[in-house]
């Protein structure tokens, strides 16, 4: 679901088309898109915590979910994207 949205390249998304229509630079639009996915991921994490309890990541199945979330969060960092952009602009 959420991971599938991220795996899809940004240029192929409706968000990219809308951003282009609104004259938002592509790099800015991609960073906004990444931050939106980060917020959704955090919202899902909070829902799990409120449903199962505050110590949800101590359970065996939940540990796997937590590890998956953490791996996905590492891929969502906009910093490499910004660094690449500054290198390209130099």
Can you describe this structure?
The structure is a single chain. The protein is an all-alpha fold. The chain contains five helices and no strands. The protein has helices at 2-7, 14-21, 26-52, 60-75, 79-89. The longest helix is centred in the middle third of the chain and has 27 residues, at 26-52.
Helix content: over 70%
The overall number of domains is 1
Can you count the beta strands?
Answer: 0
Order of helices and strands: HHHHH
Sum this structure up briefly.
It is built from 5 helices and no strands. By secondary structure, it is mostly helical. The mean pLDDT is 81.
List keywords for this structure.
5 helices, mainly alpha, 0% strand, 90 residues
